[in-house]
Design a protein that fits this description.
The chain is built from 6 helices and 2 strands; from the N terminus they run H-H-H-H-E-E-H-H. By secondary structure, it is mainly α. The chain has a domain of about 100 residues: Arc Repressor Mutant, subunit A. It has a two-stranded antiparallel sheet with strand order 1-2. Helix 2 crosses helix 4 and helix 2 crosses helix 5.
């Protein structure tokens, strides 16, 4: 019985013209994102939320009367993904729906007092997480980091 032989590996050397993993901005963005998301998720557990539903609630609180379609545009979400999130937030009594005065097909979303309180508590906890996350950056560096990151995604 003859066994298949694995092809012999050829010795290669690193191509100096190509950047290493540590030279890639995306690598650092992803690593930082993972650390941030883990901390933000832990911070939001206290208000029984997760990052995406919390972002949706924050949009409603910051922009009373916003529609689901507008939230999707602001957050870069697919419309199909917001339906279950809105159902969860509404079940918790965090916002109310009201028909648009000019177009009854559009529902405007308004935070309840409870929704405002949950959003404020969540923001406070995430801000505390960020304070720890960014403790080694000066105030100026934090502003510059936000500015540079915004230039990438806006």
């Amino acid at each position: 019985m003859r066994e298949a032989m694995a092809p012999k590996a050829e010795k290669t050397t690193a191509t100096p013209a190509l950047p290493g993993l540590d030279d890639l901005v995306g690598y650092h963005l992803r690593r930082a994102s993972i650390v941030d998301l883990q901390g933000a998720s832990a911070a939001l557990e206290a208000v029984r939320s997760r990052p995406v539903p919390f972002s949706v609630l924050s949009c409603i609180v910051e922009r009373p009367g916003i529609s689901a379609a507008e939230i999707c545009r602001v957050l870069g979400m697919q419309r199909a993904n917001i339906v279950s999130i809105l159902a969860e937030l509404e079940e918790r009594g965090l916002f109310l729906r009201e028909a648009d005065s000019r177009d009854n097909r559009i529902q405007r979303l308004f935070p309840t007092r409870h929704g405002q309180d949950v959003a404020a508590q969540g923001i406070e906890r995430v801000a505390q997480h960020e304070e720890v996350l960014l403790q080694h950056l000066s105030v100026e560096e934090r502003h510059e980091l936000r500015r540079l990151l915004a230039k990438i995604w806006q």
